[in-house]
Amino acid sequence: MAGTGLLLTAKNVHAQEALRISLAGDLAASARQQANSSIGYYNLLAGPTAWRFSTGLGMEFNDNVRLEPNGESDLIIRPSLDVELHWPLTLKNSLDVSVGAGYSDYLQHSDLSQFFINPGSGFSFDVYVGDFKINLHDRITMTEYGYQNPSATGSSENLVSLENTAGVGTLWDLDKILANFGYDHVNYTSLSQGQNQGTPDATSENIYVNGGVRLRPQLLLGLEAGATVINYSQNSTTNSPAIPSAVQWNAGVYGSAKVSEYIDFRVDAGFQDYVPDGSTATNLVSSDSSGFYLSATLSHRVNEHINYTLSFGRSTDLSAYGQAQSYYFVRLTPNWNFFRNYAVSTPVWWQHGTQVYYTSVNGQLNYDQFGIGLNINRSLTQKMSVGFSYQFVQENSDGTSLNYTANIVGLNFNYQF
Length: 417
What we know:
By secondary structure, the protein is mainly beta. It contains two helices and 21 strands. A hairpin with a 7-residue loop joins strand 4 (94-106) and strand 5. The protein is globular, with a radius of gyration of 21 Å.
């Protein structure tokens, strides 16, 4: 990702794979709607199109760039450029394109230097046909920080992965009744240099469907289901032993409620099953991983100075994220607005995970990860802003050689043309 400030403010989605993709689409649609309704969000009009240009320069100090027990430090410089396009083709149909990219220059460890892609890059095309809203999309996300793969630690290489999601989603809105269904094809590509990264190349096919009834204007309840088939590149040199392909499915219920003017709540819960293909799991102990899943998010505006978001639950993630794992998580992000022109947040999170499959020699790995951060942003002028960020990450696991701590300090300057 582009910088620590973005990491501290980005929303994390924890869920089964098909459900995760569905929720990511909801977040993207919400962001587009907010941008389109904000006066002055776009800073250039060219014919029927609206554009937004911004650039950034980040400087970051990391005292453990390789996530090892005895860490090595480095200073990283990150210039970046973001371009967004909004093109209303008709009164209802519109095309949105966002491209954000830059370069991470590690001054001491040049082997870790690389280009990056900012979160939210891709395109989205909305088409309205009667009561149906059809969304065609292609979203690109990139994981640069190794601690975002908690079960793939202790590597002396850089853990970088690129995820490209292309598909279609359809919303059928009958006011009291809502139905959502879609299909996505995902490519997972390891960009790491070297061997044994724990992030094999893979592709997955995902389908999801949910339907709900709006019992009240502020209360929506419904059913949801999804399925994923993922296949790994068994010839990849970045994973040894071979990672098994797998099928994952989930079924459950969901609900969203505006409890009051200041409190919003969303929950997804149900049963999931993760079934690895034993025929490709060479030298691995593998078994089905089934059980409940839960993803709950509470947003609360306490007063004009304090608001927070609390999310918690249980999930099983595919090994495209490092190592297939089942885990519990809690994340709290308070925002403090006591000082004029300053935006302050102090995120805290905890995650406990267990590998789904493992080698008989090394045994099954359990880990606990804890993190805390500080993010301060201030507008210097109408077009320029500055952000300071600090993040502490600690991970403990069954393998002492995989334990580490990391301190990350960042300073980011952003300019909107």
